[in-house]
Amino acid sequence: MTLPPSAPASLPALGPLPLSHGSVDRGCERRTDPEWLPGLMADPATRVLALAAGKAPVAGGSLVLHSPAGLPEPRTVVYLGASEGQEFVAAGWDEVPDVLAGTGDWLGLREVAAGLPVRDASLFVEALAILNWHATHGHCPRCGAPTEPVQSGWVRTCTADGTLHFPRTDPAIIVAVTDGADRLLLGANAQWGGKHYSTLAGFVEPGESLEAAVAREVAEESGIAVTGAQYAGSQPWPFPCSLMLGFTARASGTDAVPDGEEIVDLRWFTRAELAAEVEEGRLSVPVGLSIASALIEQWYGGPLPAPRGLGN
Ligand SMILES: [Zn+2]
């Protein structure tokens, strides 16, 4: 096991995150035209990303995109945007249509995003997020009447009172808390069985700033007061509709007390301690797509060692 050199006193913001590329031009000025989306669906050159129950067809490490010609009627259609001269549309079904069943392996975003080309990862995260919203907003929150999509799928309007309803994203903060010795605070969540440790996180509440949410969530889950919250980067997390906002913050003390409900254990780790325990398989930490993984690796100074028996 080799340890990286100690991290600089002031950490840089998180680098590119796997779901944050945003490489597609969403064409906000085009999609308000009511003829725009029907026109694309009548054009065989349009590329359609099919989604069923959150999964999309993948073959050879890329999304399988279809022409709209011959597709069965989708439950929802949304304009995704343009990239390199091509126009992209998402089409959602409750189940994989028979005619598309053999067009690739139907996989979820978390399974494939890290291996997809940047454009495909951008299309998949956008499509999943907006289709998740459509799937749960079929009725007007004011009067209960059905709503229907307008503006190429980026707004829903009430069929009774005409009110407009915009896509919802739930902001959540996630924070790497360090102490005066630059140890990292990680918590074991009750849902994860007690051996999986991650950074503290929680939803931003109405009427609350991001900085206040960082302070409140850390205090609620650990009893620790933090200062100097610094924004580090963000990543959409459409499971179903979160936006994760990453922060670093400094603890004013080290007496961490788990709340006993959400968090069952809290520990301060040196880099050597965390690497050794992960390598020996005594605990696990997030790996892969999540911003928690990026925050932990940023503090550590690079990827953590793999557990023994998993390739080393
Ligand atoms: Zn209404």
UniProtKB/TrEMBL annotation:
Q: Where is this region: Disordered?
A: 1-31
Fetch the Pfam families from UniProt: NUDIX (PF00293), NUDIX-like (PF09296), Zn_ribbon_NUD (PF09297)
Question: Could you say which enzyme class this protein belongs to?
Answer: hydrolase
Provide the GO MF annotations for this entry: metal ion binding; NADH pyrophosphatase activity
Q: Which UniProt keywords apply?
A: Hydrolase, Magnesium, Metal-binding, NAD
Q: What's a GO biological-process term for it?
A: NAD+ catabolic process
Protein EC = 3.6.1.22
Requisite cofactors:
Mg(2+); Zn(2+)
Could you tell me what reaction this enzyme catalyses?
a 5'-end NAD(+)-phospho-ribonucleoside in mRNA + H2O = a 5'-end phospho-adenosine-phospho-ribonucleoside in mRNA + beta-nicotinamide D-ribonucleotide + 2 H(+)
| Source organism, top-level taxon | Bacteria
Q: Where is this chain compositionally biased, Low complexity type?
A: 1-20
Domain Nudix hydrolase, residue spans: 167-291
Q: Which GO terms describe its cellular component?
A: cytosol
What family does the database annotate?
Answer: Belongs to the Nudix hydrolase family. NudC subfamily.
Q: What is this protein called?
A: NAD(+) diphosphatase
